[in-house]
Amino acid sequence: MRVRQIVTVLLALGGLAIAQDGPPLIDATDQAAIKANDGKTIILRGKVVSAEWSNSGAVLVIEFENTSGVMAAAFEKSRKKLDDAFNGDYAKSLAGATVRITGKLQPYGGKADKYKDALEVIVWDITQTTILELPATDPTP
What is the pLDDT of residue 20? Predict the structure, then answer.
């Protein structure tokens, strides 16, 4: 019986070690962790407060709740595959949802002054986004 308990503990610890080998999971509000992982592949977790395509349709800007130091973006060349994978509208699927976005954290490379000091994760592929919690819906009778 004692051997079985030891084996179970060792298997559990081995599973934890495997889980920690991947990119770190960072909350979008954790500015210290975000800055510390600049240039690294991360899993960014947060509630999306805004996901809107630019007027030209070239860039989707994804903003998270309670943060100004990190954002995510997608580009027009990825739009069709993202839309197809997320019920026809990637941006609409993200708005208000709690998500995980995996990718390399890097300095914002766009033109908007609002994000000049921010870091961003670029979404190129559908596998980078996981919706963890759908937005609350207004129960209208």
Answer: 60
Q: What is the CATH number of the domain that holds 118?
A: 2.40.50.140
Query: 6-20, pLDDT tens digit by residue?
Result: 433 333 444 444 446
Whole-angstrom CA distances from 106 to 20, 38, 73, 103 are 22, 6, 11, 9
In a domain, 17, yes or no: no
pLDDT band at 67 (very low <50, low <70, confident <90, very high): confident
Higher pLDDT, residue 3 or 77? 77
Q: Are 63 and 45 in contact (CB under 8 A)?
A: no
**Would you tell me how many other CB atoms lie within 10 Å of the CB of residue 60?**
21
The domain total for the chain is 1
Q: Which of 81, 60, 55 is nearest to 71 (CA)?
A: 60
Query: Quick one: which H or E segment has residue 42?
Result: strand 41-53
139, HSE (Cβ side, Cα atoms, 13 Å): 0
